């Protein structure tokens, strides 16, 4: 099996200033075409460390993909390091990339400086894949000879995630053109509401009975839930797809309505599809989540088909004066209560005219908790055409993680309520 390595370049990654999403996206793209990423390396903006680090990866891997260290400023050091590693003897301007650069500069009204145009300057021993999303070209090197007798392939991508991700289809196609690839098949079942430790016990018999060539991975994410991924390396894709489908068909009855999707599904897309299919709508009233639920809904293209809007009612006065929460409710039970979120949900449903609504009120922290209502407490209210319900959860994360958990659990409760209502209509 081919071995791949990913190298990110830049001090900003090592000091935690920038989140490395490039490695994740590249690794996923490689996995989709049957190549396993064995090594990930990050190095700072130091020529010696870049040269030694990349050279070491080239000796032990078939494919090395690097990102970062490219641009119109003095930290454009990657190309020089790559020229040194691969034995380039000169440089030239790639006219196709130069045309893209000048077009971008003209569109933005920026002068054609030597620094900007210089991004099209590349070592004479590389192949250029055009960067259609930015200025710095993608370069490909195939070093060999005595230094690299394994004949690896080296790809250099810009560090900007939008540009790096945009280059991946061309990179993967180039890999397909130059390597004989064995098929790999992954399929993911997406669940919510069952913690990983409990899930492991629930499906232990099913997992133990899996064929030896089928590998299971648990992929928890507080915003999405717990994804269960089955993988088979090698074989024929159509046959492996059918085998994995059969195994997941055995698992679905065990997990029941905890399963809500597959692949790249998330709660907001699944809810949107259900509402669109049923020609129904939803709204939100948020306190502790501060607009995150609205952000999740509106992250889905076409959400205007079913999402009507929200009220971010952080202050009690907004809960009372806009959503219609009774002052007596606030005085007797408090804002973080079953009674309050039910009235919030009913209020925003009435204001917007939506079929469903979801409301949240809680204590994200770090302060504001009490013995009866500790930090991490949230009440979630759901209003549907025939009833209004509420449920309480208590989480133990920091403020940011609590807000993510509050919002995702609110969407999951909404999903279950919509599923239940639509099921009753069909029956």
Automatic annotation (TrEMBL):
InterPro entries per UniProt: CinA (IPR050101), CinA-like_C (IPR036653), CinA_C (IPR008136), CinA_KH (IPR041424), Competence-induced_CinA (IPR008135), MoaB/Mog-like_dom_sf (IPR036425), MoaB/Mog_dom (IPR001453)
SUPFAM superfamilies documented for this protein: CinA-like, Molybdenum cofactor biosynthesis proteins
Membrane-spanning ranges: none
Domain MoaB/Mog: from-to ranges: 5-178
Sequence similarity: Belongs to the CinA family.
Name this polypeptide is given: CinA-like protein
Natural source organism: Candidatus Merdivivens pullistercoris
């Amino acid at each position: 099996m081919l071995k791949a390595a990913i190298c990110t370049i830049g001090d900003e990654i090592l000091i935690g200033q920038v989140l490395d999403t490039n490695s994740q996206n590249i690794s996923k793209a490689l996995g989709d075409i049957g190549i396993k990423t064995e090594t990930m390396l990050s190095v700072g903006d130091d020529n010696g460390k870049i040269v030694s680090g990349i050279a070491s990866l080239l000796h032990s891997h078939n494919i090395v993909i690097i990102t970062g260290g490219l641009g119109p400023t003095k930290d454009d050091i990657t190309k020089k390091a790559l020229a040194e590693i691969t034995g380039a003897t000169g440089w030239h301007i790639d006219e196709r990339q130069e045309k893209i650069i000048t077009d971008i500069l003209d569109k933005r009204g920026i002068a054609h400086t030597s620094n900007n145009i210089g991004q099209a300057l590349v070592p004479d021993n590389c192949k250029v894949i055009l960067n259609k999303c930015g200025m710095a070209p993608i370069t490909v090197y195939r070093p060999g000879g005595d230094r690299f007798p394994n004949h690896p392939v080296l790809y250099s991508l810009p560090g900007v995630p939008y540009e790096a991700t945009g280059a991946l289809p061309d990179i993967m196609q180039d890999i397909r053109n130059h390597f004989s690839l064995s098929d790999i098949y992954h399929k993911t079942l997406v669940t919510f509401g069952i913690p990983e430790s409990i899930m492991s016990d629930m499906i232990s018999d099913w997992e133990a009975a899996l064929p030896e060539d089928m590998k299971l991975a648990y992929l928890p994410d507080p915003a999405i839930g717990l994804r269960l991924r089955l993988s088979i390396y090698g074989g024929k894709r159509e046959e492996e797809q059918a085998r994995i489908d059969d195994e997941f068909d055995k698992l679905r009855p065990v997990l029941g309505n905890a399963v809500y999707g597959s692949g790249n599904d998330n709660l907001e897309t699944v809810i949107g599809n259900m509402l669109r299919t049923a020609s129904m709508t939803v709204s939100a009233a948020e306190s502790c989540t501060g607009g995150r639920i609205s952000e999740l809904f509106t992250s889905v293209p076409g959400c205007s088909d079913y999402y009507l809007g929200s009220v971010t009612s952080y202050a009690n006065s907004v809960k009372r004066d806009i959503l219609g929460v009774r002052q007596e409710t606030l005085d007797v039970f408090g804002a973080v209560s079953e009674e309050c979120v039910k009235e919030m949900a009913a209020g925003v449903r009435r204001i917007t005219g939506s079929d469903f609504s979801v409301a949240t009120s809680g204590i994200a922290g770090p302060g504001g908790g009490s013995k009866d209502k500790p930090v991490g407490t949230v009440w979630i209210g759901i209003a549907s055409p025939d009833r209004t319900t509420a449920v309480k959860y208590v989480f133990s994360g920091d403020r940011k993680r609590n807000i993510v958990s509050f919002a995702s659990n609110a969407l999951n409760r909404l999903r279950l309520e919509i599923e239940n209502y639509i099921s009753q209509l069909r029956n």
